[in-house]
Amino acid sequence: MPNNYFSHDKDGREYSFAAAETTADYTNLVDLKISTEDLQCELQLDAIGPWEPLNFQIDPTKWRNDQKELVDLWRPFQPKEGILNDRDSILLYGMLGDTPVSPTGLAQYKKKLGYKPKESDLCYPTDAAKLLTCCDEIFDYFGPLGRSFLVRLNAGGFYPKHRDHILLNRDTFRLIAFLGDAQDSMEWEVSGQIRQFLPNTVYYVDTRKLHRLSSWHPNSTMVVVNVRKTWLNVLKVLSRLKHS
Ligand SMILES: [Fe+2]
Predict the structure, then answer these.
(1) pLDDT exceeds 90 at position 1
(2) Which of 118, 162, 206, 219 is the most exposed place for a label (fewest CB within 10 A)?
(3) Percentage of the chain exceeding pLDDT 70
């Protein structure tokens, strides 16, 4: 029987669909608690800019070898019903008991749990975390990490325009590491501007701002890292800016 690509992935596995998107209602958050540390971190992160490289060197030879160990662990990233989107992920840090092939998207967690967990609670390394040796230094420097995953956009893979964690009390901020030689195989837009990125480089990205991604080649591969938003971790980012 031919595969139905709206319900099954390329390997014939049934999709773990994400929860449907709903319009966010913030009007019930009038009593939201925003700490002094939240404000301090957010203002300092805002001062960095929306898209800034850090000075870690990711070894491409290590990544080439790591890929061989990870090859069977890719699973569709956050599929939505009725939409074809060729993107895969491998879970690196998630819930206790998760494995590298557990669904990685927050909306997939919501479908499974009935609520969206906090990024910082998804802090348990899967077996894939230690297989990604090319990122050891980054993970050690910023750990313990929240939800983190490898994601690979293939030809036609995309993230539509969206924002992540817009509230000032977000518990984590995002780093994105670009692996391999994906430099011109995909496009990142943040705050209405196309951003240039260097391969084998990790960036602080202000994903509170409107952003989208599109890929037109296979294997546009990134690591998405959620770092706990503490003053110490913000200072660690400042200490490793490529252009300080
Ligand atoms: Fe995002």
Answers:
(1) no
(2) 162
(3) 99
Please give the distance, rounded to the nearest whole angstrom, from the Cα atom of residue 104 to the centre of ligand 1.
Answer: 13
For residue 235, the model assigns a pLDDT of: 98
Cα–Cα dist 157/43, whole Å: 33
d(CA 9, ligand 1 centre) in Å: 22
In which band, very low, low, confident or very high, does the pLDDT at 3 lie, cut at 50, 70 and 90? confident
CA of 120 to the centre of ligand 1 (A): 16
Ligand 1 centre distance from Cα of residue 207 (Å): 6
CA of 211 to the centre of ligand 1 (A): 7
Question: Looking up tokens 């939409």, which residue turns up?
Answer: 83
What are the structural domains of the chain? 37-239 (2.60.120.330)
Residue 222 has pLDDT above 80, yes or no: yes
Q: How far is the CA of 164 from the centre of ligand 1 (A)?
A: 5
Distance 222 CA to ligand 1 centre (A): 12
For 156-211, how does the pLDDT look when each residue is reduced to its tens digit (9 = 90+)? Answer: 999 999 999 999 999 999 999 999 876 788 999 999 999 999 999 999 999 999 99
Q: How far apart are CA 167 and CA 164, in angstroms?
A: 9
Cα-to-centroid distance, 174 and ligand 1 (Å) = 9
Ligand 1 mean position, distance from CA 31 (Å): 26
Alpha-carbon Rg for the chain, nearest whole angstrom, is 17
- At residue 108's C-alpha, the angle toward residues 104 and 112, to 5°, is 115
What does pTM read for this prediction? 0.95
Q: Is 30 helix (H, G, I), strand (E, B) or coil?
A: coil
